[in-house]
Design goal:
CATH architecture of the largest domain: Alpha-Beta Barrel
Number of strands: 10
Number of helices: 16
Number of domains: 2
Distance between the termini: 37 Å
Radius of gyration: 23 Å
Order of helices and strands: HHEHHEHHEHEEHEEHEHHEHEHHHH
CATH topology of the largest domain: TIM Barrel
Strand order of the largest sheet: 8-6-4-3-2-1-10-9
CATH class of the largest domain: Alpha Beta
CATH superfamily of the largest domain: Divalent-metal-dependent TIM barrel enzymes
Structural class: alpha/beta
Shape: globular
Bound molecules: D-glucose, magnesium ion
């Protein structure tokens, strides 16, 4: 029996070692993978859950990411600066400390995001009726842009989880949308000023949708709703605003992640991507990438590889409450990173697979020579379309390594 914590930790480490298959920190650093402060520091708390882990600060999260080979870090303003210190000189002391930790561990800050859902001031959302709440919201959004430039970020993300309601009829949705746009416009305008002053590119401002939680009804619930909002005429700089879809958030409304991403790719708005896993039509469980839907994930990565997506893969998951502080860094983070890289590599094999190449080419060529005759068109494709199921089987084989000769009992 492993009864002491030290013995249990050695058991976990030994079984991790036995599992094998880890990438080296150098290999991991080749990917644009980012680790959120809030994921590393998540204590396991929720509405029905007391914390199961101890608090840790940015120094530890950045050090751990650097050591394991995750080259990028992301944060909310309040993950690292208490709300009362924001907009005061104290915040710049913290920002200087963060820049030192980033440099010490060879990690870069890729994205910043403004917390507009947790503090009591956001009870009615950052786009609330009261003008003073919205003015404070604008200050905070502009301040997050300032912090982002100071930390060297390229992206700002906005998740408006409070932009909605619990009870119907209490808010006017069109006002809320315009007021939300006012906040984004203030952030973009500040960005243009600061970027010019610092000789840096402006940030990419990315909207992240989630269909519900914490509000019961959300006014911009899906990535498609976000795209319609971007082109609705209320933004002063729609060209500065794109998307940060989250894999699980699209599953939560029953969407097909690949199709969502395809629509964003066509619109040129797929700039940032939150990666995780979970179950369709359930709440936001934020499990590690690939633990629930590895085949779907493989297909998502095939799409992204095929279309040259070069933005970040942000590990927006939550280490389960059953995992200890030790386990977060020994198991949660490295295994999530390594499953992602493995799936990315397998997606490369899919692109090169001879069966899939020939099946795809045959389907695209069609049966031919039908002369516009309806019955002949149907007949010409009758046998070819069986290839759809064959392709799905081949993808399963590639996922489990059967294409490389993996054998079971025979
Ligand atoms: C919550 C969201 C949240 C955002 C974060 C960045 O469900 O996924 O974690 O990604 O606030 O804006
Ligand atoms: Mg997210
Ligand atoms: Mg989520």
């Amino acid at each position: 029996m492993a009864s002491s914590q030290t013995e249990q930790q050695s058991l976990v480490s030994r079984l991790m070692e036995m599992s094998g298959g880890s990438y080296s920190p150098e290999q991991r650093r080749k990917y644009f993978i980012s680790g959120p402060q809030w994921a590393g520091a998540y204590e396991g708390h929720a509405l029905f859950h007391a914390p199961t882990r101890e608090a840790i600060g940015y120094e530890d999260v950045i050090r751990r990411l650097g050591e394991m080979g995750v080259g990028y870090w992301t944060t909310h303003d309040t993950d690292v600066i208490p709300t009362d210190d924001l907009l005061t000189d104290k915040q710049w002391e913290t920002v200087a400390g963060i820049n030192k930790a980033l440099a010490d561990h060879d990690v870069q800050c890729s994205m910043v995001t403004c917390e507009t859902f947790h503090h009591a001031v956001w009870a009615g959302s950052p786009a609330a009726e009261a003008p003073e709440v919205r003015d404070y919201g604008k200050l905070r959004l502009r301040n997050t842009v300032d912090i982002g430039h100071e930390l060297g970020a390229q992206f700002a993300v906005y998740w408006p989880g409070t932009l909605g309601y619990m009870v119907q009829g209490a808010i006017d949705e069109t006002d809320t949308l315009r007021w939300f746009a006012d906040g984004l416009n203030a952030a973009c305008e500040r960005d243009i000023e600061v970027a010019a002053k610092k000789g840096r590119a402006t940030l990419k401002h990315c909207l992240e949708a989630k269909p519900f939680e914490p509000q019961a009804q959300i006014i911009l619930p899906t990535s498609d709703a976000m795209m319609a909002f971007i082109s609705s005429g209320v933004l002063t700089h729609p060209e500065m605003v794109g998307l940060n879809p989250e894999y699980l958030h699209e599953l939560m409304w029953g969407g097909a992640a690949r199709a969502v991403l395809a629509r964003a790719l066509l619109a040129g708005k797929l700039w940032h991507f939150d990666i995780n896993d979970g179950y369709p039509l359930k709440h936001d469980v934020d499990l590690g990438v690939g633990l629930v839907n590895p085949l779907d994930w493989l297909n998502v990565l095939v799409l992204l590889r095929t279309h040259g997506y070069d933005g970040p893969f942000n590990l927006d998951f939550k280490p389960p409450r059953t995992t200890s502080n030790f386990g977060v860094w020994e198991v949660s983070f490295p295994t999530a990173v390594d499953r992602f890289i493995t799936l990315w590599e397998i997606a490369g094999e899919v692109a090169e697979d001879e069966v899939l190449k020939q099946a795809g080419a045959a389907l695209r060529a069609g049966g031919g020579a039908a002369n516009g005759d309806l019955a002949a068109i149907v007949a010409a494709n009758r046998e070819l379309l069986t290839l759809h199921e064959l392709i799905a089987h081949r993808l399963f084989q590639i996922l489990i390594g059967q294409n490389r000769g993996r054998k079971f009992s025979v």
